[in-house]
């Protein structure tokens, strides 16, 4: 038998956001669940455990961090904030960015900083070989 735990505030907020924004069974005009013809019990959910079948199968996978946090036993999973946007995500190995777009932006920022440091170093401009300057040619 599984024992449910109380949902954290961010988890409740995430469930509410998913239901009101993505659930096809939710009518925002009248704030009801269409199959139940009454209020959606997912909006007042305070504990893990039973979820609406449609919500769990079709809506919850849209937020993999929330899905892993509320569907698995034990403490919430270890998430890592994205180095660019700060959004929490489930890293795979040494992954530092949540999406390819953030990865590209992070690489641009690192490259920009590296070049800024390189240009700031003295004597890194033109080659200075230490040769005396050539003077006008003598003779003809």
Short structural description:
Helix content is 36%, strand content 6%. The chain is mostly helical. Strand 3 and strand 4 (88-89) form a beta hairpin.
Please characterize this protein's 3D structure.
The protein has helices at 9-22, 53-59, 64-71, 100-120; strands at residues 26-27, 32-33, 80-81, 88-89. The strands form 2 sheets. A two-stranded antiparallel sheet has the order 1-2. A two-stranded antiparallel ribbon has the order 3-4. The chain is mainly alpha-helical and 140 residues long. The protein is elongated and about 105 Å long. It has 2 domains: 9-77, no CATH class; 78-119, no CATH class.
Question: Main attributes?
Answer:
4 helices, mainly alpha, single chain, 140 residues, two-stranded antiparallel ribbon, 2 domains
H/E order of the elements?
Answer: HEEHHEEH
Kindly give the count of domains. Answer: 2
Shape by Cα distribution: elongated
Low-confidence runs (pLDDT<50, min 5 residues)?
A: none
Termini separation comes to: 104 Å
Query: How many strand units?
Result: 4
Structural class: mainly alpha
Radius of gyration: 28 Å
Question: Biggest β-sheet, characterized?
Answer: 2 strands, antiparallel
Helix count, per DSSP?
4
Proportion of β residues? 5-15%
Overall mean pLDDT stands at 82
Approximately how much helix is present in the residues?
A: 25-40%
Strand order of the largest sheet: 1-2
């Amino acid at each position: 038998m599984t024992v449910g735990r109380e949902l954290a505030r961010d988890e409740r907020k995430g469930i509410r956001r998913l239901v009101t924004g993505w659930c096809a069974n939710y009518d925002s005009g009248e704030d009801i669940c269409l199959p139940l013809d009454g209020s959606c019990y997912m909006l007042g959910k305070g504990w893990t455990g039973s979820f609406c079948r449609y919500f769990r199968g079709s809506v919850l996978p849209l937020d993999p961090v929330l899905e892993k946090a509320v569907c698995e036993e034990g403490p919430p999973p270890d998430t890592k904030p994205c180095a660019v946007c700060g959004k929490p995500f489930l890293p795979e190995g040494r992954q530092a960015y949540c999406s390819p777009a953030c990865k590209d932006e992070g690489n641009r920022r690192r490259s920009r900083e590296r070049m800024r440091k390189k240009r700031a170093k003295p004597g890194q401009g033109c080659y200075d070989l230490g040769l005396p300057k050539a003077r006008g040619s003598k003779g003809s």
